[in-house]
Every structure is written in C-alpha cells, then in structure tokens.
Amino acid sequence: MVYIDTNIVMRYLLDDHLELSTKARQIIDSNTKIFICDGVCAEIVYVLSKVYKVERLIIKQTISSFLEKDNINASNNQIITKSLEIFSQQNIDYIDSLLCAYNYVDNIDIITFDKKLNKLLN
User: Fold this and answer.
1) Could you say which of 12, 43, 52, 96 has the lowest number of CB atoms within 10 Å?
2) pTM (2 decimals)?
3) What are the sequence ranges of the domains in the chain?
4) CB-hemisphere CA count at 13 Å for 71?
5) What is the rounded distance in angstroms from the CA atom of residue 73 to the CA atom of residue 36?
C-alpha cells in the first residue's frame, strides 16, 4: 500500500514526459494498492483547471475514471466523487465543492462567510 502525490498522477494522466510518464504508468498499472488523499485530488483539479485550462466536466470524468481503477483508492471516495460532481455543475472553487460534499455526504455543518457557498449548503 502506497500513497502517491500529484506529480505521479499528472504524469500518468497527461502522458507528457517520456521518462516520468513511463515511471508513473509502471507504478499505477502495477498491482500495488494505491491511495489518493483529498489534498492530492484538490491539487489535480487545480492544475488541470488553472494550468491546463481543462473544462470542469472533463476534469470530473478524468479523475472519476482514474479512481475507478481496481488498485486505486481515494482516502474518502464518496466525498471525492460528490465533490467532483458538485465542481462540474457549480461555478465554485474545488475546495468549496469539497466542503459541500462533506456537508451533503457526512451531514457536517460548514460555517462560512462565502455567500455563494452558503447557498449550496444544507
């Protein structure tokens, strides 16, 4: 069991660096149980949206597909899945989507001054 960081996932998804993308594929396509934490997912979303200008729906589909691999486990899959759904449908930052997901899935109260976020919370 290993945790991998954003750089490994990005090289795998983008296949943009001959040496590093090859190493990332070897790691991810192995039988090793791999875990992804919320922070890594947040950074992947940020890099894809801000640096590579990928559309929100494509980001959701790409990360969701990646998380469906048999050996990949998100540290909190239900939260990450819900946050990606919210992110793809709402014009809010991914971190706000993550907070909404915790609110919806785990019924956790979120306190914020953000009016847009407050409208989405239960």
Assistant:
1) 52
2) 0.93
3) 2-120
4) 14
5) 6
pLDDT in 10s for each residue of the chain, 122 residues: 999 999 999 999 999 999 999 999 999 999 899 999 999 999 999 999 999 999 999 999 999 999 999 999 998 999 999 999 999 999 999 999 999 999 999 999 999 999 999 999 98
How is residue 4 annotated by DSSP?
-
CB-count burial class (<10 Å; 0-12, 13-18, 19+) for 73: middle
Number of H helices, E strands in the chain: 7, 3
Which fold is adopted by the domain 2-120?
Rossmann fold (3.40.50)
CA dihedral (114, 59, 40, 50) positive or negative: negative
**CA–CA separation, 109 and 62 (whole Å):** 29
